[in-house]
């Protein structure tokens, strides 16, 4: 009973921080897979002139990643809120553990 009570208290605490948690999950995914996005952009613009390649990279880093974060954070937030309140702390912990494992596999740690 004590564990369930602690879990419920943690779930209520996590509830007020879900926007920040979902933003952290999205940002971590972009850090882990940003090299794939940059590689795709590099292949796409490799035949362009130097100024156009630099401009495309600047636009992708400033606006592209910002828009990806802005658009995907509400989706992650919505997904977390669809999980029952009791299971949210476990879900958040599991998501961060999964991202840690993915980062380790990609040699980010």
Write up what this structure looks like:
There is one protein chain. The chain has 109 residues and is mainly alpha-helical. The protein is built from four helices and no strands. Helix 2 (18-45) packs antiparallel against helix 3 (50-81) and helix 2 (18-45) packs parallel to helix 4. The longest helix is centred in the middle third of the chain and has 32 residues, at 50-81. The termini are far apart.
Spell out the helices and strands N to C.
Answer: HHHH
In this structure, how is the largest beta sheet organized?
none
Provide the β-strand percentage band.
under 5%
Mean pLDDT: 92
Distance between the termini: 37 Å
Radius of gyration: 18 Å
**Share of helix, binned:** over 70%
How does the overall form come out from the CA principal axes? Answer: elongated
Layout of secondary structure:
Blueprint: H1 2-15, H2 18-45, H3 50-81, H4 88-105
Helix pairs in contact: 2-3, 2-4
Features of the shown structure:
109 residues; mainly alpha; elongated
